[in-house]
Amino acid sequence: NEQVLAVVVDVRQFCADPSEPRRVLHSPFVNGGYRWATNGRVAIGHPSSSPPDGGTPDMRGLEIIRPGAEYQRVQYEIPTARVCDLCVAGLKDCVMCNGRGRHSLALKCVCGATEHDCGKCKGTGRVKCDGCHGGFLYPTMEICGLTVSSRYVRMIDEYAPEFAPHKKKLLCFRFGQYVGAIMRTFKERKKD
């Protein structure tokens, strides 16, 4: 008798970070009979009997449950992520205040101050690096003929997923009760 172990994934790791303007992507949601999590570049879902959440993206439009190609186990090697040389842990000096967090005013403000907190960094002197993810650069890689960011493959690798291409736009994956997709990348990018 072969025992099947249930795979449990904390799907919140696939949600967008707070800097993403589409707030609906900040937490998991139910739509189309699945509980989904996505940051707009990778999506993962599992069956859910909960009613749909209002105001959420229509994940059924991705058709990632039926990719149109057979799922297969593929051999791949995840390239090593590189440390970003523009920042420290994903944060860099604000260019508006040169990392000071404050602006000197040429004239005295109506409030009497000669300095104010920087509006760009909100007085911290640091801003999110737009060239990396948390201080790392993730090279692209190819699976099933699609070029994708190794960042997202790394997130699901431990679950030994099966892959299938979908209309040359998405790399679909599945493992256990989970299905998902990674959007293709057109070229080597620092951000992905």
Number of helices: 1
Please state roughly what percent of the residues sit in beta strands, choosing from under 5%, 5-15%, 15-25%, 25-35%, 35-45% or over 45%: 25-35%
The largest sheet has its strands arranged as: 1-2-3-14-13-12
Please tell me what the overall shape is.
elongated
How helical, in percent, are the residues?
under 10%
Low-confidence stretches: 188-192
Tally of strands: 14
Notes on the structure:
With 192 residues, the chain is mostly beta strands. It has one helix and 14 strands, in the order βββββββββββαβββ. The chain has a six-stranded antiparallel beta sheet, with no helix packed on it. The radius of gyration is 21 Å and the shape is elongated. The termini are far apart. Mean pLDDT is 82; it is low at 188-192.
Strand and helix layout:
Blueprint: E1 29-31, E2 34-38, E3 42-47, E4 82-83, E5 91-93, E6 102-104, E7 115-117, E8 126-128, E9 136-137, E10 140-143, E11 146-149, H1 150-156, E12 162-166, E13 170-175, E14 178-183
Antiparallel strand pairs: 1-2, 2-3, 3-14, 4-9, 5-8, 6-7, 10-11, 12-13, 13-14
Key traits:
single chain; 192 residues; mainly beta; six-stranded antiparallel β-sheet; two-stranded antiparallel ribbon; 14 strands
